[in-house]
Amino acid sequence: MVDLDSLPATRDAYDAVATRYAQHFTDTLRDRPLERALLAAFAESVHAGGEGEVADLGCGPGHITAHLRRLGLRAFGIDASPAMIALAQEANPELRFEVGSMAALDIADGALGGVLSRSSIIHIPPQDLPTVVAEFARVLAPGGQLLISCYATDDPSISKQSFDHSVMTAYRWSPDHLAGVLRDVGVREIARVLFQPKATDKRQFDELHLLAAKN
């Protein structure tokens, strides 16, 4: 496993905004019934596959990890930012959180029943996306579930588009391209959902949620 050259900059950027980020985003599911339904479907699929542990990769302040636990999953969180992990542990002392990299997880091969990557790939440089996705596949057990979300490109024939982000440069991905990267590492797409932006949303991009399973 080789870690990413971009990791230190990402870690430092999120350390700097961790408290403000947590205050702004910890209640984001309240007005997102469709995403809550997708998370519930993800949880049901993990339960059906054998109740393995679930890693929330790029967990930030831990609010989605806590939601997964309320859905009955044995969820834990990993984030590159020590400041984010400290906030997650403070808010959810009963849960497990670890500092780590999505490209070099300290998790055994095939150990997990599920992986959640909620907007955590948006800062991955395009050349490093296959490495990160291969790591997701490595830690999943056969039949393990993956729910990955990101912003989608405007034109599906374009594999990626960069955009200005309040923290650091970010990317949105073609749904077909992302599904193909998953397929290359033995993870098959089950379903995809595109959320249309609301008129009041800061970014007028479609949001992709892709549910997949390891072969």
UniProtKB/TrEMBL annotation:
The keyword Ribosomal protein does not apply. It is an enzyme of class 2 (transferase). GO terms for molecular function: methyltransferase activity. Its EC number is 2.1.-.-. Keywords: Methyltransferase, Transferase. GO terms for biological process: methylation. It holds the Pfam family Methyltransf_25. Transmembrane segments: none annotated. The keyword Secreted does not apply. InterPro entries: Methyltransf_25 (IPR041698), SAM-dependent_MTases_sf (IPR029063). Residues 54-144 form the Methyltransferase domain. PANTHER family: TRANS-ACONITATE 2-METHYLTRANSFERASE-RELATED (PTHR43861). This is Class I SAM-dependent methyltransferase. It comes from Amycolatopsis pigmentata.
